[in-house]
Amino acid sequence: MIAFGYSRFPSRPAPTEDPPPSFQASDGDPMSANNEFRGARVLVVGGSSGIGLALAERLLADGAAVTIAGRSQARLAEAQDRLGGDGRVRAVALDIADEAQVAGLFARSGPLDHIVTTAADIAGGYELLGSLDLAAARRVADSKVFGPLLLAKHGAPVLAATGSLTFTSGIAAYRPSARGAVVAAVNGALDALGKALAIELAPIRVNVVSPGWVDTPIWSAVAGEAKTEKLAAMAQRLPVGRIGAPEDIADAIRFVMGNGFVTGSVLHVEGGHRLV
User: Measured between alpha carbons, how far is 143 from 123 in angstroms, rounded to an integer?
Assistant: First the structure.
């Protein structure tokens, strides 16, 4: 039986006899100079590509045990091969918009120290209102608002009291554009959700990291063949003179995970985009 140290959550089912091994604490890499996450048990939803994959790499180098979760079995397998991890990494198929799947994952997981989600399904979400498909808009909201809400609902009971939840929003909430109403709305909702959950789930910390334009696979869905041109044009506008890399955002997520005095905050990592 897992002891939570506080009573606001209902009791959870006991873990199965064979919990995912990546949720088990590890001594980590003895050569790791940063022991902040050594032996930590971390779930990264969206960890098969982009920012989530970069974060998983960082945490494994720090000696953490990491489970990456996502919908694509093929991408998960490729990411797991890339990460290696000496037995400290596992891949789990998961649709975070499916409450039964989310609840089942945590029923099997055992204790965790941190939960992060970078998952986003924005296919069809960038459209002018006249062309917007409501089903596509709902998929965006499911992946970026209701999915994180389900992770909090079912994940908080297995999180350490000193642990954290970290969500990923985006610059669209603060610099909206035509065709971006849905994405702006869901990213803005995460700001409010993070603050509310930081109160309700305390002492568990809840934070949001808001990236700017980052060169990840998601841009292929947003811009198609114009991706390279659009990213280059934005790089010229930004005060830092470049587009973000997944590692830039991964480092920001690691900061809010590791700093025990940060909760209910939105950390903007956008190269100065809000200034231009």
Answer: 11
Q: Which residues contact 17 (CB under 8 A, 6 or more apart)?
A: none
Instruction: Please check whether residue 84 is in contact with residue 68, taking contact to mean a CB–CB distance below 8 angstroms.
Output: no
pLDDT digits (tens, 9 = 90+) for 181-208: 999 999 999 999 999 999 999 999 999 9
Under the banding of pLDDT at 50, 70 and 90, the label for residue 218 is confident
- Asked if residue 112 has pLDDT above 70, the reply is yes
Strand partners, 211: 269
| Architecture of domain 21-28+35-270 in this structure | 3-Layer(aba) Sandwich (3.40)
Residue keyed to tokens 């969500």: 167
Domain boundaries, the chain: 21-28+35-270
Residue 224 pLDDT exceeds 60: yes
Evaluate whether 267 touches 248 at the Cβ level (below 8 Å): no
Residue 59 has pLDDT above 70, yes or no: yes
d(CA 206, CA 262): 8
Which residues, other chains included, contact 102 with Cβ-Cβ below 8 Å and sequence gap of 6+?
A: 94, 96, 147, 150, 151, 153, 154, 155
Q: Give the full edge-to-edge strand order of the sheet including 159-168.
A: 89-93, 65-70, 41-45, 112-117, 159-168, 205-211, 266-269
Single out the catalytic residue among 48, 109, 143, 169: 169
Judge whether 169 counts as a catalytic residue: yes
